[in-house]
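In the previous chapter we treated chains in isolation. Here, by contrast, the input contains three separate entities that must be folded as one system, with a combined length of 381 residues.
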Amino acid sequence: MTRKSDNPIVSLVSRIISPFIMLFALYVIFHGHYSPGGGFQGGTMLAAAVLLIRLSAGNEIAQLQFKKDLGTILGSIGVLVYFGTGFLVMLLGGKFLDYKYLAKILPVSEVMARSWGILFVEIGVGIAVMGLLVAIYDDLLEGDPL
Amino acid sequence: MKTLDFMLGHYAYWFTLALLAIGLYGMMMKKNLVKKLIGMTIFQVSVIIFYIAGSSKWGGTVPVMDKAIDVADSTKYINPLPHTLMLTAIVVGVATTGVAFALVISIYKRYKTLDETVLLEGMKKDSDSDE
Amino acid sequence: MKFVNYLILIVFGCLMIYASMGLPSRGDTDAILNRDISPVNSPNAGVHYIKNAYKDAHTPNMVTVTLADYRGYDTMGETTVIFTAGIICFLLLRKKRNINDKKE
């Protein structure tokens, strides 16, 4: 799994398809309001786009796209965005995770402020799931001799 | 006819219970550690499918609001609560499988085997030589 | 020893099939899951979420509103679970340095 695949079809097709998978995953995250989808589904698809390159081009070349230590950092940033939204609402005077107090910062009505709060939380969950799934894969292949 | 109606209403649960029994068989009877982990994953998936199958409703549609179907008539939409809880359950299953594979790799580095009987003998020899 | 294992498996299977006799038929519109009032005379949570999701959050998808707004604590706990799993995998499988060769 750490060696470059020597089949030309696999190398070429995985390099062409991987950006489109990332684009569709962003669509699934941001359209979680209007169709089935949301944070978890989009985060898993983003992780699948990164892992496709790791499986087909070997570990050495895939480090150029997405470094090995970046997984846990992105996971921590995602969890921080989720908790940060909750604490921001508490600083504005409401209870924890009560999104209607976000109307004091953003220039929207109270009902739309809840919609924006849901969007921030879903983005946080998507980034966290992507970072942590790639980090688990990289840690499982830590000491694999080439 | 009552027996036929009963079987038509309950056959979905019996298929899910068959998956549960297959998962339990894999966890108990196999000796390789990785095969036991595959049995645990099948067990988790069968519980998730049971909840999703049990929450369906005749005449109801997906819990996404349609402009043509009024929301005040709540018999036209299925209950969104089991679907929400099962999203969390899927991610928890992934996390458990990841940690389990990390533990299997650590065991292999220390004892150099993945077989259950050889592993138990190695652990007993370790605890005997410690005292 | 293997006979006891098979016996436990068969007894478990029969117990599960006996327990599934008491479940309602799949898709029954009169099941307890789909009613308006629960058996202890309190409103059903799922029906309340269906009726008020668009009014409260201006979002058509009821599952996302339930997951991130009405039940936000559960999603917070679940994000903590997968974060802990990632940290555990990192701590179990890093290369350990030898205590004797420090570079000083």
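Chain A has a mean pLDDT of 90. Helices of chain A lie at 8-30, 39-65, 70-91, 110-140. Compare these points with the single-chain example from earlier in the chapter.
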